[in-house]
Design brief:
By secondary structure, this protein is α/β, with parallel strands linked by helices. The protein contains 18 helices and twelve strands. Bound molecules: pyridoxal-5'-phosphate.
Length: 512
């Protein structure tokens, strides 16, 4: 076990250490240059847009800035300092080479309004990425425009609605989307935003979609079914082909929530399971971190009969091998994002796939599944920790553990376990999700954790279980070794109680 104690700096704000006139290094002779650029910019701007006062910025040296942010980072947690098994978020280590690719001048200095003839390389990259993602998911066409998984869902569900409007012409009558009770919350939210009534499908005692419930719910009102496979408890929906048949026979379409492709990429494809639409979170499986607040990319893939409804512009390749934007899709749902999506995320995804190749991608999935099963096997045996549902079914990229038994015996809850884990230098797993598992810990180790690191994680949980039985208050008061102790969960998340800017801070100090 690694001894862990998080740094605890009493760090002032940069504004508080600001000294008038202090700057970072100066380049000899650059002053003249800067003044002349500033002068010509000033003459180009309308006078009403010019500042009358200089901006209020902290005046500090370069070293002060470096130390300030280094200290703040030491009081934080990241995948660079320890295991980050945040279930459903795929907080894996993303190779730096993919960041370097996104930072290349030719990519990072592009302007979205540039003429297509001047950014052929970028268009080729996006076009090729679309082809690769179509291949990985078993779809015929892909858009890279949506900026998040939830926006991908919204786009995909809009496409389903357009299909029923234009092709089956049953849009009015088909106003229901079927969604399992274990689904990610964004699924019913996206369906409702597009105007669908959500019909909740209960899970079977095995934690899978209940086939009888699908049969009972599917009918002339069904626009489609939204499903995650492997599902939210980490188990593969083995009856997926039968489920797809029931929905298609009823005239509906199948939507695959592919936010987490880590378990299946290179192994099996939603298109081959019978799905018609899929979104992928490139900011999970494809080398941009999720959970950092963005930016993301929720690419959407569709089967051929749905291609005409995808957002515009589409990227096309001419017979001569050049690339262009095409807007001429009269039945497109329109734009869902400015320009062509978050380009930097797309470059990372391209670089990731290019560097791994098809064998590498398959190995990612195999290792992600192996790691999740290793954790499920060992954690499921810790006193107070149980593996709910389908005990014998292998887990895919993640496993959900319940500590309900621990709570009953010792009073220690999933929240307490999560907080105490921080004291071992491990980020907490997702907790209390999915809702169908009481006192849930949703653990996604990802393929990038070594067996040694997984063993540290497992032994930390063993230690917590021991403490819960012997000195429960030690767990209930946690964390003890972090920069800040137990936070008030409500106040920490409520914008009214947070001071979000220096200006707010100054105003609050004056009001006091
Ligand atoms: C299964 C699933 N679907 C959808 C989403 C939504 O993705 P995003 O957070 O990018 O909107 C997530 C995010 O964690 C997810 O795990």
């Amino acid at each position: 076990m690694i001894g862990y104690r998080q740094a605890k700096w009493k760090e002032p704000l940069l504004f508080e250490v600001s000294v008038p006139g202090r700057t970072s290094y100066k380049l000899r002779g650059a002053d003249k240059e800067i003044k002349s650029v500033a002068g010509s910019l000033k003459s180009m701007l309308p006078s009403e847009m010019l500042r009358t006062q200089p901006p209020s910025l902290p005046e500090v040296s370069e070293l002060q800035v470096i130390r300030h942010f280094t200290r703040l980072s030491q009081m934080n947690f990241s995948v660079s300092s320890g295991t980050y098994p945040l279930g459903s978020c795929t907080m894996k280590y993303n190779p730096v080479v993919n960041d370097l690719a996104a930072g290349l001048n030719g990519f990072s200095w592009l302007h979205p309004l540039q003429d297509a003839s001047t950014c052929q390389g970028a268009l080729e990259l996006m076009w090729e990425l679309e082809q690769w993602l179509a291949e990985i998911t078993g779809m015929d066409a892909v858009t890279l425009q949506p900026a998040a998984g939830a926006q991908g869902e919204y786009t995909g569900v809009m496409v389903i609605r357009e299909y029923h409007k234009c092709i089956t012409q049953e849009c009015e009558q088909r106003n229901e989307l079927l969604i399992p009770d274990s689904a990610h919350g964004t699924n019913p939210a996206s369906a409702a935003m597009v105007g669908y009534k959500v019909v909740v499908l209960p899970s079977s005692p095995d934690g899978l979609v209940d086939i009888d419930a699908v049969k009972a719910a599917a009918g002339p009102k069904t626009a489609g079914l939204m499903l995650t496979n492997p599902n939210t408890i980490g188990v593969f929906e083995k009856d997926i082909e039968e489920t797809a048949g029931i929905i298609h026979d009823a005239g509906g379409l199948l939507y695959y929530d592919g936010a987490n492709l880590n378990a299946i990429m290179g192994i099996t494809r939603p298109g081959d399971m019978g799905f018609d639409v899929v979104h992928m979170n490139l900011h999970k499986s494809f080398s941009t971190p999720h959970g950092g607040g963005g930016p993301g990319a929720g690419a959407v893939g569709v089967k051929e009969m749905l291609e005409e409804f995808l957002p515009v512009p589409r990227i096309t390749r001419t017979d001569e091998g050049t690339f262009d934007f095409k807007y001429d899709f009269p039945r497109s749902i329109g734009r869902v994002h400015g320009f062509y999506g978050n380009f930097g995320v797309l470059v990372r995804a391209y670089s990731y796939l290019y560097s791994l190749g098809s064998e590498g991608i398959r190995n990612v999935a195999k290792n992600a599944v192996l790691n999740a099963n290793y954790v499920a096997h060992h954690v499921g045996q810790i006193p107070g920790f149980t593996l709910p549902f389908s005990k014998d079914a292998p887990r895919m990229h993640e496993c959900v553990i319940s500590v309900e038994e621990l709570k009953e015996k010792t009073g220690v809850t999933a929240m307490n376990v999560a907080k105490r884990l921080l004291d071992f230098g491990v980020h907490a797993p997702t907790i209390y999700f999915p809702l169908i598992v009481p006192e849930a810990l949703m653990i996604e180790p990802t393929e990038t954790e070594s067996k040694q690191d997984l063993d540290i994680f497992i032994s930390a949980l063993k230690q917590i279980s021991k403490e819960a039985h012997e000195t429960p208050e030690r767990v209930m008061d946690a964390p003890h070794m972090t920069a800040v102790g137990r936070l008030d969960e409500y106040r920490a998340a409520h914008p009214r109680t947070l001071t979000l800017s220096w200006r707010m801070f100054q105003k609050q100090s004056k009001d006091k």
